[in-house]
Amino acid sequence: MFSEGFLTVFLMVVLTIGILITIVLIKGRARQQTVASLSHWSQPPSRFVEVNGLKVHYRDEGEGPVLILLHGLFSSLHTWEKWVNLLQDRYRIIRIDVPNFGLTGPFPNSKVDDQTYMQFLENFVTTLKLERFHLAGNSLGGYFAYQYASRYPQRVNRLVMLNAAGYFFIPPAALIAWGMPLLGRIADYTEAPYGLFASLVRRAYADPSKATSDEIRRYNELLHRDGNRAAGGRLIRHIRNCVGFDTSRTQLLTMPTLIMWGDQDHWIPVRHAPKYHQAIPGSELIVYPNVGHMPMEEIPEQSARDLIQFLDAAQESSVCNA
């Protein structure tokens, strides 16, 4: 007999398939927007730099030790805005529109594998002449952060993982459908109802009312950046084909690591937090009550204070060892 949970997921997928087919018939092909038409998301202090054939959108603000920030799936560097406002007096903060998302857009070779992302990050920091830095990432960005740190430990002083992707979980039904071979390719080029899209963004918050209309509009507009929708679909199907993510490299992490998690994460379950804590030697773990998938957006002050305490310990350690 099938379990109740399996049947629930199956019915959700079937319903989503029906919705997507209806959307195809009614809405038609998704619009594509140029970077120029989205220039209101790249106002100063935005910059662009050429890396691996991409014009990478990034921002470089503040003074002090370097802190690089990586966003999650279908997000952009704007997700860190509240942290930047709180932290730029203490750190030089560099945040990136990760390839296949935001204004950076898809890799020219259409690749979405780990090695392509790792080589991009290494070339990016080399282009900016960065030698050592702190590295933090949320969701998919958290996965990229620890993958990079495990390969280039000489670069990363301290690592911070916020609700990081990695261990197996059942994503929202819309993403399951997008990962399917034929239906996924249809979804790559199909315009979804704004209300459905907005509900997925709100799902990232423990308190859905904290997802403002401006934030939802930003997510929606940047998804329609030319090439992003299809690139996101390729990434989802790549993850499906690999049967998830590679978490084996967590045991190779040697730098101090802080794991942050919201206990009301409806995207990646909080039960993954202690798994990372156990897998990463000497790591620290903070679980926030009544917080969802993005602590830096829902509780920016508290999460920023915890980040400062963790990162400043590196400064104190260097002074003690001088």
UniProtKB/TrEMBL annotation:
InterPro entries: AB_hydrolase_1, AB_hydrolase_fold. Keywords: Hydrolase, Membrane, Transmembrane, Transmembrane helix. Residues 65-298 form the AB hydrolase-1 domain. GO terms for molecular function: hydrolase activity. This is Alpha/beta hydrolase. The chain crosses the membrane at residues 6-26, 159-180. Gene3D superfamilies: alpha/beta hydrolase. It comes from Kistimonas scapharcae. It holds the Pfam family Abhydrolase_1.
